[in-house]
Amino acid sequence: MESESSEPTRIMVAVNESSVKGYPHPSISSRTAFEWTLAKLVRSNAAGFHLLFLHVQVPDEDAFEDMDSIYASPEDFHNIKERDRIRGLHLLEYFFGRTHQYGISCEAWIRSGDPKEVICNEVKRVRPDLLVVGSRGLGPFQRVFVGTVSEFCVKHAECPVITIKRKPDEIPQDPVDD
Amino acid sequence: MESESSEPTRIMVAVNESSVKGYPHPSISSRTAFEWTLAKLVRSNAAGFHLLFLHVQVPDEDAFEDMDSIYASPEDFHNIKERDRIRGLHLLEYFFGRTHQYGISCEAWIRSGDPKEVICNEVKRVRPDLLVVGSRGLGPFQRVFVGTVSEFCVKHAECPVITIKRKPDEIPQDPVDD
């Protein structure tokens, strides 16, 4: 019924770094969401899908903590920005590599800001068919303190959203870790 | 990377009748959710997916309104149940027909009860990879009065859930209609 020449389904996948291992390691939840997308949606139909990886970096207010602020020059600022950009690219390389193995076309980019706001703005701009976000699957008590990007996106993103929780055997001792 | 011999992705689709046209017409939102699933996820890969249609019928407390309750016999009850069952089957025929056109394998069944509770219980029992539910996309004010099955499922169903809203040009004058 459906011809393979139609536009591929564009899936935006929001990815972030591991809060425990840091860059360039992906968080458990974004890796889980990505692998689920490959295994359950894309399957063997690589030509039918196009993946859009968005990585949002949260501006680090403590970046100058280890320098004397009096001596922070415009160049220091530039260096920090550059360092963040390179870290982000290394994270995206992980997802690029896996996507390439599957033969799926993809693109990726980095933005800076509040992840939930940025993701919803990028959905508005890029208009994917579907947004996939990982979730730590926190209980109500833990959620109050950390907020959840996925709940915000389900409510506010202007496209269908799918939330993928970490597998029970991959949840770290402290579930807030990722 | 992925061999086509692996188990198909099992997608449960919750479907209901149109609140305006009644049986056997599907609601706008369940038809939209179903067509989205075909066009954006299944695409040309019919063998990679298996659809599970669940239709929940809400017990009709006014079913005896037009008879004298003194004379309602066990047979009257039986007839009403039988009438509901046949109506439900006619609704499911619509989805069966479209799915058959695509060459996708499927199964369907009817349950009775509170749709949001029944859907979550059936997810627990059947363990699909994904649950797709349509949504009328109501504003917060309208939601208070009608409740939304989709929001409940997103929170409580034990599998990934995707909510598909009606297209703006398909929303009836009163958005609570469907």
Q: How would you portray this structure in words?
A:
Two copies of one chain form a homodimer. Chain A is α/β, with parallel strands linked by helices and 178 residues long. Chain A has one domain (9-170): Rossmann fold. The first copy, chain A, contains five helices and seven strands. Chain A has helices at residues 28-42, 74-102, 115-126, 140-146, 149-156; strands at residues 9-15, 17-18, 22-26, 49-57, 105-112, 130-135, 161-165. Chain A is globular and about 55 Å long. The mean pLDDT of chain A is 88. Chains A, B: Residues 26-165 form the UspA domain. Chains A, B: InterPro entries: At3g01520-like_plant, Rossmann-like_a/b/a_fold, Universal_stress_UspA, UspA. Chains A, B: It comes from Apostasia shenzhenica. Chains A, B: This is Universal stress protein A-like protein.
Note the topology.
2 copies of one chain form a homodimer.
Chain A: E1 9-15, E2 17-18, E3 22-26, H1 28-42, E4 49-57, H2 74-102, E5 105-112, H3 115-126, E6 130-135, H4 140-146, H5 149-156, E7 161-165
